[in-house]
Amino acid sequence: MMRDQIGETAGRLWTELGSREEIGLTQLPRVLKAKSDVTYQALGWLAREDKITYRTKAGKVFISLSEKEREHFKNHI
To answer: Which residues partner with 15 through β-bridges?
Structure first.
């Protein structure tokens, strides 16, 4: 089911972001080895839950975990 696939990808994205400082928006599908449409829906899922932050530098968008989520990640590894 598509919703399950998006949720699973959101979980993998959360974990990947927890282990990195940030990831470029366009790199997400490759890093997660997932289809672009599923990856960006998973990103939306995390954004809706206020788990990520966006930063723009030199016209490129970067994604990272919010401070609250980064602490949550550190406490659960």
So the answer is: none
User: Is 0.70 topped by the overall pTM?
Assistant: yes
64: left (phi over 0), alpha (psi -120 to 50) or beta: beta
Largest CA distance in the chain: 38
Domains and CATH numbers, the chain: 2-75 (1.10.10.10)
Beta strands in the chain (DSSP E): 23-24, 52-57, 60-65
Sequential pLDDT tens for the chain (77 residues): 999 999 999 999 999 999 999 999 999 999 999 999 999 999 999 999 999 999 999 999 999 999 999 999 999 87
Number of residues assigned to the chain: 77
- CA distances in angstroms from 13 to 50, 55, 58, listed in the order given: 14, 17, 24
Cα–Cα distance for residue pair 49/47, rounded to 1 Å: 5
